[in-house]
Amino acid sequence: MVKITFPDGSVREYEQGVTGLQIAESISPALARNVVCCGVNGETVELNRPINEDSSIELYKFEDEEGKHTFWHTSAHLLAEALQELYPGIQFGFGPAVENGFFYDVMPPKGTVISENDFPKIEAKMKELAKKNEPVVRREVSKADAIKEFEAMGQGYKVEHISQDLKDGTITTYTQGNFTDLCAGPHLLSTGDIKAIKITSVAGAFWRGDAKREQMTRIYGITFPKKKMLDEYLVMLEEAKKRDHRKIGKEMELFMFSERVGKGLPIWLPKGTQLRLRLQELLRRVLKPYNYQEVITPGIGSKNLYVTSGHYAHYGKDSFQPIHTPEEDEEYMLKPMNCPHHCEVYARKPRSYKDLPLRISEFGTVFRYEKSGELHGLTRVRTFTQDDAHIFVRPDQVKAEFENVIDIIQKVFKIFGFSNYEAQISLRDPKDTEKYIGSDEIWDESENAIREACREKGLKTHEVEGEAAFYGPKLDFMVKDAIGRRWQLGTIQVDYNLPERFHLEYTAEDNSKKTPVMIHRAPFGSLERFTAVLIEHTAGHFPLWLTPDQVAILPISEKYNNYAEQVKKFFDKNDVRSYIDDRNEKIGRKIRDNELKRVPYMVIVGEKEAAEGLVSMREQGGGEQSTMSMADFCKKVNDKVEEQLKVVDE
User: Fold this and answer.
1) Other C-beta atoms within 10 Å of 81: how many?
2) pTM of the entire predicted model
């Protein structure tokens, strides 16, 4: 018999060799119908994998992240199986599950191009194969046999991957029908659970992400266990297109990109710059009770700085390369992180235990090289500004300071209406500890400090291995927007390693020298990404205090332009942001155009308004309409702003 421990702490005994599916069946037939995979001792595996020792188990449905990943991983294989039948001789690269669906990189036979026109026949073939309910069979193979097998199939990319990347004794294949793939799993037990299928897009992708290698065809898709789920997803996709921050940002004149300036380098236009500055001022206001000291550090640093911090060893190959100066052997780098600079700020003078916590903040612009194909509006750029801070604390202060940062992030989310979020504890990969710095003891201490702080704050969390920073674990806040999409925004990280690498110290109460602990934190994450998410969450309808233009003044004809100027001057004096649309257009056209710019209020001025010193107010979206004095209108706007910002000082 083996003892199986469930997430709630309860324990049941089963015969040795029991499977996840059998355990689900022992609980309820409904659960067994809906479960797609299981977690055994923290590893996600198939439902038919035998359990031969005492273990903990989690049963995952499609709704769970692990369940979706398994479902979509099998769907990627189903796509490949369909492509193999439709395009004999096709070559396969990698085909993983991603956050929303899956993709497969393929090399079609010479002279064949796969385009959007082919999506219907690919979907039809996938549905045909899924209906066969083919079992997915796992097999462990030796490296030599795997190379021989995939050479016989003519799959050169797979052979290269096996030869260069995989160790003997760790290789598995999965077979369904006539298709066999090299894969670590896990997978569904069969393809029959895949009921609704949509191929969503096609793009180019270099083999292994190397621009010097051949370009493959990347086919994206998504699947669901029910057609209704697919229908809902497609509606969400249409809504997402309307909310695309690139489209809205252009309409609202917030930011731009220029090929001449360079890919992935956003230019903030005047309206976007004002929005960005208001975000910064808001955060300064939130931070005021916490005694942060703001600094400004250079946009470049000596290569040696990042060698000391460990960033060069871990990110150097994938970053902008060192800048060589006229001085021999002198090298600088574009700043990839603010933390090494802040370590130097700490080290500039002796510190006492009484000086801690020391909270150093910066709106620091950093530079990271992203491949061209991965750039996307403001969410994936090559330069961005972090609302960064590094808090240097004594070990006994870690938990309390960590909890303070949780409070700050939760306040920021409340201000912007992000009510649906959870926290992800990102841990190191226990199977690949070489890519991290620091001892096991330090990592255990850091990870447990985060867990304890989250428990005390009553924060809903889940843990993910392999997502930690190279220098320490972190708490990432995953926010769901208005249409249900998941975004990573705020982050907090505990770091015992960088202070050691920089030989930071403080004088303890007993006069001994101690090393501080460093907490990294960014409530927004970055101003670019946060702005993009906020645009898509609100569809560009920002809170009144934040929106670049609060009011559009629309004179009915050019006869009333002078009165419009008087109105604007009055608004300026009363801290109401406005502009005049004095184009020679009919008032209906002006209203439609300013609706597109998502201006919260329009005030229309004509003969009556000019004669009586009034404005006719119209709310965005055809809401409230009324005529009032300029003073009453300004009070209305300012009262609403004050109400929206009340939460900041609570």
Assistant:
1) 23
2) 0.81
